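pasting for ref
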Amino acid sequence: MSNTYIDQPDDSELESAQDAHRARQLEAFAAIGDVEVPLLAEVDRLNVSVRELLRWKIGQIITLNRPTGENIDLFAGDVLIGNAEILIVDEKLAVRVADLKDKAPVIHNPAPLG
């Protein structure tokens, strides 16, 4: 009995295939390519009571839940599109994209057309 081995693509072949797939997806959106969407780089979210909010003063330190060094969330409109790390570039805050979501978002209860 002989063993049959299936060649697995190496990492560079896999990345190349993913890049080609992403390029095909982008081509599908060429007609709306100039439409602008708001980009939000979200550090964290926090719920506070109105009572606590009214006690805040200038210089107040607000402790968030996200650990330092953890990637932040990137949104296009209300859709989570990936994660990024916070940087400082030329004395301005910037983000470096760490990953992008490959799957289209699931829309629950879409509004009827027409």
